[in-house]
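fyi for ur records
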Amino acid sequence: MDIQNIKDRYDIIGNDPQLILAINKAVQVAPTDLSILITGESGVGKDIFSRIIHDGGARKHKKLVPVNCGAIPEGTIESELFGHLKGSFTGADKNRKGYFEEANGGTLFLDEVGELPMSTQVMLLRVLQNGEYLKVGSSKVEKTDVRVVAATNVDLMYAISRGKFREDLYHRISVIVVQVPSLDERKSDIPLLVKYFVDQICTE
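which gave:
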């Protein structure tokens, strides 16, 4: 599939070389099973690039499960990611699947991965290394087979220097980095975007 078809399919507007480079890179790495880190400011469409990568890979017939790591309260994030057993904590009135179980065989998109607490980063590293994890309240090792695509709008190297992000985890999730440019970096695309939105409004 050529770049124009990709842009049409995912409603991507723009011809800036940096944008085309990002799309090309996403298309090229999609058929692999490598862990991908998508970087860029909030609102640049990192979620769209996760879909391009998932849809272009061998896991496209399985689930793409998006998770906003920054929106999950710290006290429940391990339960959300890995699941829990009934009675494992107050309010756990039934067994619950985690996102890693839901995405088994498919792709897990971890948006705002830089917001994960350090304790959860350790557990995430283990899953990436050997596909193993523990549900909250369980001692039974579970197995999962997922491709992880992560995204962040923060400088993870700076976070590492401040002790906020694990360097070993960074290297695990950033085998390939796809940098999505902001609109400020591709100002030549602004007239195309204006025309697109004006045409939409006129049609409505």
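The chain has a mean pLDDT of 94. thats all i got for now
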